[in-house]
Amino acid sequence: MRQVWITKKGGPEVLEVRESADLSPQEGEVRVNVKACGINFADILARKGLYPDAPKLPAVVGYEISGEIDDVGHGVDSQLIGQAVVATTRFGGYSDQVVIKAHQYFPKPNSLGFEEAVAIPVNYLTAYQLIVAMGNLQPEEAVLIHNAGGGVGLAALDIAVHIGAKTY
């Protein structure tokens, strides 16, 4: 399989495509044939050496992917093979394949392509954590959303409107 590695701190020129052995899912895991991976702010900061949670370089980053399950480990229903999914990966998403826990994915909506679906997990989970889980936003309350032009801001706006809050 191919992976995109950050070889050292720097600009896009430090990225390198490398071949790696295919992955095998273990018990309770699924392997996803990646069709699209997200490129997030954290990934860019990791490449620049500015993200404190990033793995030590050289590394493969990537927090979200979309694709199709193509293999399952022991204890996982083989009928999942072929299912289109989106998933969070923490790291390793810049790959042709990822292995994740079987509970770590969501079915990909049929109305979205792989490229569209991959933009959902990090942005929407972050926005939800901020305004619902931590902020406890309720219907009829007001919320000021800064930077509604970015992924998390657009997701926060969408969630707030869905809740029935007044947005600024």
Distinctive features:
five-stranded antiparallel beta sheet, two-stranded antiparallel sheet, 4 helices, 9 strands
**Total count of helical runs of at least 4 residues:** 4
SSE class: alpha+beta
Low-confidence region ranges? none
Rounded to the nearest angstrom, the distance between the terminal CA atoms is 46 Å
Secondary-structure element order, as H and E? EEEHEEEEHHEHE
Kindly estimate the percentage of residues that lie in beta strands according to DSSP.
Answer: 25-35%
What is the CA-atom radius of gyration, in angstroms? 18 Å
- Biggest sheet, strands in spatial order? 6-3-4-5-7
Structure description:
It is a single chain. With 168 residues, the chain is of the alpha+beta class. Helix 3 packs across helix 4 (151-163). It has helices spanning 41-47, 114-117, 121-134, 151-163; strands at 2-6, 15-19, 29-37, 64-72, 84-88, 97-101, 105-107, 142-143, 166-167. The model has no long low-confidence stretch (mean pLDDT 96). The strands form 3 sheets. It has a 5-stranded antiparallel β-sheet with strand order 6-3-4-5-7. It has a two-stranded antiparallel ribbon with strand order 1-2. The protein has a two-stranded parallel ribbon with strand order 8-9. The radius of gyration is 18 Å and the shape is globular. The longest helix has 14 residues, at 121-134. It is built from 4 helices and 9 strands. Strand 8, helix 4 (151-163) and strand 9 (166-167) form a beta-alpha-beta unit.
